[in-house]
Design brief:
Radius of gyration: 22 Å
Number of domains: 2
Number of strands: 13
Shape: globular
Low-confidence stretches: none
Largest sheet: 6 strands, mixed
């Protein structure tokens, strides 16, 4: 059993939302944390049909129990948004604790569903992290197979990645009626995967897919709402020079990117490996930000000239990612230049595949990736975040 790092404990007294992409392990985690809980799964046709027709039947069923459970888990809550009114009533009137699990908040937000008026704590589950894998963490495995547990742990992840992309990313989007032109959305998935880790140009993506720029933006929003991807905004605080302000986009699972663009046999030194490597570190940073409950900002910095730093954490930590076994002087340009505009940056780190850690005369810390992640999860830079 893999011990997940999400800070949700069995003794919680608060109703909570647990969001996360499909197959991140939410259901398994909740079963392990709350083995005595009453469970409803809205993917089951019986539960879905019953609560769609009569949301009040949830309260009726709970009142009929001789001993009401302390926690009630409702999986895929976004399937029946109207059920949330009944959940709130039972919380307020009966003090009932609910665990509300879902893989997309799109229906809830777009349908102006009741999000319980701030009465529920929000958690988000990410794919597997290096901290959760511990001594079993392998760079090549994360970069090639991705972070979703079934894919990461599979002997042949390619088959499961194919099923995930074909059956979930495409078919479920069609079934939910999120797009009218499914063929164009298929083209968009590939185009957006090719642009993973890069600055988003909606007009260019739209042109490649044969859709309008507003449609391309809406397609990106589908990925964000379904927790399949996220934008990383630009760091633009108190700039002295002209900077790029458009966001970058990262898929939540690099394995899906690899499948969508047929990226195989990744090896250090390749441009393709470097992009996959950067995606994985982005995942680790977002998971750490959430699980540590520090919720620090994650942005990138790029001058109009092209000099950039991959990630700025908060306002005082700058990180550059290089999937190389030997760091060269040109790899340090961004970390050297960011201090010109932002002297408040106190920690500069280059994450790479070198064998040993070293600190340069400039103060830049060059760290092997697994050592960087070990220090990150140990909280070494928490005071700066």
């Amino acid at each position: 059993m893999i011990l997940r790092a999400i800070p949700l404990t069995p003794d919680t007294q608060e109703t909570f939302f647990l969001w996360g992409p499909r197959q991140t392990g939410k259901t398994t985690f909740l079963q392990e944390q709350f083995p005595e809980a009453l469970r409803y799964d809205l993917l089951k046709s019986s539960d879905f049909t019953r609560f769609t027709r009569n949301p009040e039947s949830l309260g009726e069923e709970l009142r009929a129990m001789a001993e009401r459970p302390r926690v009630v888990i409702i999986d895929e809550i976004q399937k029946v948004p109207q059920l949330l009114d009944e959940v709130q009533r039972l919380m307020v009137e009966d003090g009932q604790v609910f665990g509300l699990c879902g893989s997309s908040a799109r229906k809830l937000r777009r349908g102006h569903a009741n999000l319980l008026g701030g009465r529920a704590v929000r958690y988000e589950m990410y794919g597997l992290t290096s901290a959760e894998m511990g001594a079993d963490a392998q760079v090549q495995r994360f970069v090639s197979a991705g972070v979703l547990p079934r894919h990461h742990l599979a002997v042949r992840p390619e088959r499961m990645l194919r099923a995930y992309v074909e059956d979930y990313l495409r078919l479920e989007v069609a079934q939910e009626g999120l797009v009218r032109n499914l063929s164009a959305f298929h083209d968009f998935l590939r185009a957006s995967a090719l642009g993973d880790t890069e600055i988003v140009n909606f007009e260019n993506i739209a042109r490649e897919c044969g859709v309008s720029a507003p449609t391309a933006k809406e397609h990106y929003q589908i990925l964000v709402d379904s927790l399949l991807g996220a934008f990383v905004p630009a760091y633009t605080e108190r700039e002295k020079r002209r900077v790029v302000r458009a966001p970058k986009f990262y898929y939540r699972d690099v394995g899906c990117v690899n499948h969508l663009i047929r990226r195989q046999d990744l090896q250090p030194g390749q441009e393709a490996f470097g992009k996959a490597f950067e995606n994985w570190i982005c995942h680790e940073l977002h998971a750490h930000s959430a699980y540590s409950e520090r919720h620090y900002s994650i942005r990138y910095w790029r001058l109009a000239s092209g000099i950039e730093v991959d990630f700025v954490l908060g306002d005082r930590v700058a990180i550059e990612i290089k999937g190389v076994t030997r760091v060269r002087p040109q790899h340090l340009n961004g970390l050297e230049q960011i201090c010109v505009d932002h002297p408040g940056i106190e920690t500069r780190i280059l994450v790479c595949l070198e064998a040993r850690a070293r600190r340069l005369e400039s103060g830049i810390l060059v760290l092997p990736v697994l050592e960087f992640l070990k220090r990150l999860w140990a909280g070494e830079w928490n005071a700066s975040l």
